[in-house]
Amino acid sequence: ARRGAEATSAMDKAKAGRSAYVGSKLQGVVDPGAHAVAEVFAAAAALHEAA
Predict the structure, then answer these.
(1) Domain ranges across the chain
(2) 44-50: which pairs have CB atoms within 8 A and are 24 or more residues apart?
C-alpha cells in the first residue's frame, strides 16, 4: 500500500475531482487519501504482528 501511495506522486494530470482544477501544482505530491490508507494498513499489520 505504501508503494502504491508513493506512486501517486508520479501520476498524470487528473481529469476529474479537485486535482483536475489544481493542475500541475500537485505534481510530485503523494495523494493524501492513499497515504492515509497506507498508514492504516501499516498500523493494522503492526497490531496483527504484536498479537
Answers:
(1) 2-50
(2) none
